[in-house]
Structures are given as C-alpha cells and as structure tokens.
Amino acid sequence: MQRAFTLAEVLVTLGIIGVVAALTMPSLVGNYQKKVNIAGLKKAHSVLSQACMNIVRERGIDTFAMCSVNDSQCLGDMFKSELKLLSGTLWTPNSGIAEGCWEDKEITNPQEVHYCTVTADGIVYDFDMEWPRTENKVNGYILVDINGLKKPNKFGRDRYAFSIINNTDITVYKSSAVVNDDVIPPCNNGNGTVDENLGCAYKYLYTE
User: Fold this and answer.
1) What is the pLDDT of residue 67?
2) Contact (Cβ atoms closer than 8 angstroms) between residue 185 and residue 199
3) Which residues contact 7 (CB under 8 A, 6 or more apart)?
4) Which residues pair with 127 in a beta bridge?
5) Are 166 and 136 in contact (CB under 8 A)?
6) Which of 5, 63, 68, 148 places its Cα 20 to 30 Å from the Cα of 74?
7) CB neighbour class for 75 (10 Å; exposed up to 12, middle 13-18, buried from 19)
8) Is 87 helix (H, G, I), strand (E, B) or coil?
9) Residue 27 CB contacts under 8 Å (≥ 6 apart), including other chains
10) In this structure, how many other beta carbons lie within 10 angstroms of the beta carbon of residue 145?
11) Are 39 and 47 contacting, i.e. CB atoms less than 8 angstroms apart?
12) Domain locations in the chain?
C-alpha cells in the first residue's frame, strides 16, 4: 500500500522551497542586473572610443584643443554626428538638474557649464571640457548614464566617468588632472558614495 503525502508535509515542503527561493532570488536578480549594466558600460565605452578615433582621424590630432577652456558645448558638438546625439542642453550643476541631465557635482566643478545630451538608444552623455592643451592633462570629462534617467542612477551601477587624455584617447576616470600616476579610485559595486565607486568603470572593463 502506497503512503501518500499528508497536507501538512506538502505545506512544509512548499514552505521550505519558498524560503530558499526568497533567499536566492535577490542574489540571482542582482547578478543578472550587474551583467546587464556591465554590458551597457562596455557598449558606451566602445562607442565613445570609436567616436574619438574617428574625430581625431578626420580633424587632426589636436582637434579637442580647438575647444576653449570650459567650452563644453564645443566638446559635445564634436561627438554629435558620431554618437547620433539628439538635442543637447547647456547647464550648470549648481543651478539644478536640467531636463534629461543628472547630478554630477562630486566629480567635476559644479560651477562650470556642462553640455548634456542623449542618444537615440537612451544613453545620457554629460560633456565637461577642461583644458585645450596636452601635457598629460585631462582635456575633458564624459560622464555617462547607460540607461538614462531610469533608476538606480548610481555610480558603479548605471553611471560611469571617462576622460579625454592628450586630445586623443578616451580612458576611464582616474584622477582630476594627471593620469600618469596610475591611481585607480575604488569600486564598491555601486554601494556607498560616488567616491567609493569612481573606479568601477576600470574594474568592470579590465578586471572582470
């Protein structure tokens, strides 16, 4: 004679399955979302690098030096056709968040004018021109939000920072002015403050 499961046994089994699922699902979802974000970062980095190469090839090695100090719209306009950018907005972080832009006071000078724009695929680019000369200097910053204004809107998850170095190269954010010191900021996988996650672009692109 076969022994059937009692209702209590079935409920206990289902309860155990539910507990295990509740414990593992957040981790699985988190890992999946991290992979999606890293894929978006790699796409943005690849597109920016290719655009920069095309601009330098077409306009010359000192092309970004054509933009004067803090002329962020000039910098953004150089990328406009390459990135298929939509309409852009000039704004100053200290003055509040402009439509389609996002807060980035922690990285660049919040009193300087930035040029914020978005591509057809929803990536937000914030251009911040700095110096028009070389000498191992950061010529400009390009801050990206790979999924636009959708959450979580956090560095290390969907927001990352790049630099233009010596008028020729796109690189991940390292320091505010000199990049030859090879100092990589930390990455806390999107947890904590902006300063704790400025190195996430480097980590995800080159170590994972």
Assistant:
1) 87
2) yes
3) none
4) 115, 142
5) yes
6) 148
7) buried
8) strand
9) none
10) 27
11) no
12) 7-206
